[in-house]
Fold this protein.
Amino acid sequence: MLKDKIKNIHGGTLDALGMAIIGGQYAPGDKLPPEQKLCEALGVSRTILREVVKSLVAKGLISTGPKIGTIVLPSERWNWFDEQVVGWQGRIGFEPKLLEDLQELRRVIEPEAVRLAAKRATADHILALETAYHAMAAAVDAGNEEDYIQADYAFHIGLLRASQNAMFIQVGRAIGSMLREVFLITTRTPDDGIARSLPLHWEIVEKIRARDSEGAYACSKFQIDRSRKDLAAGVSRSDSTAP
């Protein structure tokens, strides 16, 4: 029980300080308050705070050193493959540039994963992709945006799993929050991006089932390029309607 309580205190403190940094309460280059003041502000012991600081250093949010204190690092130093960092940013909202960077990363990784999936996917992998696709289609029919986004995410993670490359799978999990944000924006494009996107997803499944690795690669690349255009249109539309 005591260990659970300490773990909860640590997690809550890490969450509070991580959000304060990512939310801009402490800007890049700022020094965090002295240890005693932070302990008082957060209501925790020095032992808990020091463990939290170690975690934030590991995530690239801060650096520490003798004489210089604890300094907040710029966002390009943050570990964007860390699920907590991505989750904290997701609560505030992602900058369009970061989402576009994500799409560039996807264009490098996902088509290659799909190419491998066409060679390595098992019957269970293909069934999982089909299931995710049908869940996407059902969500469209029901007009359920949240279900569609969840199913779309399951589909793309399924592609990475079907590649049977552990590194691809880990990347997909790490950027899950950002992927969901991309899917949310692209589903709201004014020219019915979902209706155009669904057949592209099914075509990828068919190419994988047919063991057509180059065809699967080309379909995946085309689908991501289409998604990038929809994302740009969606972000532009959001900017134009912002108060």
